[in-house]
Amino acid sequence: MINHRIELSTFTTLFSLRRNFLRASVVAVLLLLAGGAAAQKPTLTFVPQWLPQAQFAGYYVALDRGFYQEAGLSLQIRHPRADVSAMELLKKGEADIISSFLLDGIKERVFGEPLVNIGQLTQHSSLMIVTKKKRGITKLEDLNGKKLAIWSSGFDMLPKALLREKSIDVEFVPILNTINLFLVDGVDAMTVMFYNEYDQIINSGINKEELNTFFFNDYKGFDIPEDGLYCLKETYQNRKEDLQKFVEATLRGWEYARAHKDYTIDLVVAEMNKAHLPNNEVHQRWMLDKMLEQIKSGDKEVKKGRLLEEDYYRALNIIKRETEDARQMEFPSLNEFYKPLAK
Questions:
Q1: Contact by Cβ (8 Å): 86, 49
Q2: What's the predicted TM-score (pTM) here?
Q3: 105 found inside a domain
Q4: Can you list the pairs that 135-142 forms with residues at least 24 positions away whose Cβ atoms lie under 8 Å?
Q5: 254-265: average pLDDT
Q6: Average pLDDT value for residue range 221-235
Q7: Residue 274 domain flag
Q8: 54 with 117, same domain?
């Protein structure tokens, strides 16, 4: 009788252990399946055209708030190095999507890169020429014969086209990414971005009242949009649905940034700290505000995230005028170059 009870107790214990084991196995399988589903989310690598700053705040917000994840994407944001551009990373296959200026995007396509624009973030030009009033340059024509500092990294086409149209002859002085030459009077004028270097100048001991400014968007035909989203044609053809999710989540990120600026600035500064970059909250707030202004359509009849047909052909005409042997080259139509994914 005692042996029978022992056997019954042993059987009960074994049955309980087996039941618990089965339960644990089911849970483990479910967790594995869930993990596998998460791991199967399409992965995209996005590369902005420069180092971390508020110019790219909407992307940081969309990633931090989980907008890309909610869209079913696994997104990696990778910033380029100073010696390797976002465009080069795209060509090498190390980026799926990049941001770039409209003029640069069209120029790359003209010279043979199978590049397409899938979304136009900003709608206006932020480029400007700034001079100190003591230089006596009160109108654009006064630049004739003067030294103009100009970036040597792809931002020179628009200034050169405007000055050529106005028959203004200047001595171009190539610079990298510093305003120092302007501050010490090494040049008479400098091309700057309103959202970036202009604010650096007025925070370096020079008052706005001491400056004369010439905005490119004030000149007919030269208000050329800047930051747009680009991918290779093959990527567009193979991953159109994923790219559309990216564009929509990105626009959502910029709208959230507009409504939550303090949070956004904290996020930007954190990104800059991770990259070991010097930063200033006041300057990044200025940049964010100006970027949000450029995203608005203003007097242009264009939807958010879309490229206006007239802007495309304005940019294309500038490239034609500034490109040698343009008559022998093929230029893409709007439908060939622009594949809108913003709803």
A1: yes
A2: 0.85
A3: yes
A4: 135/188, 135/189, 137/188, 137/189, 137/212, 138/212, 140/166, 140/168, 140/214, 141/166, 141/168
A5: 98
A6: 96
A7: yes
A8: yes
